[in-house]
Input
Amino acid sequence: MTIRCKQQERGKQAFLVGSERMAGVEYTVEHVRANGTRRFFCSCPDFQYRKIRRKRHCKHARKVATLAKVARGISRLYAAVEELQAAGTVAA
Ligand SMILES: [Zn+2]
Output
């Protein structure tokens, strides 16, 4: 599952996460911090389905959340992925 930076602004980081099943398809995973809460959003159909059913996040959001934990923060993860991109490597 590939991950690339999309956009970072105050209180929000957006990543492009590749689909495992469909080559060339990427979903936008957003991490939004507002009013003391942090939430993930994903543009994939599975996320919409899970949101309605109040299930766990889709695998794209979970992937970003896991990587953020390893990187010790979503901003640090964004910076690390950006660095890899600049070096011509896309994080897996
Ligand atoms: Zn998703």
Summary: The chain is about 40% helix and 30% strand.
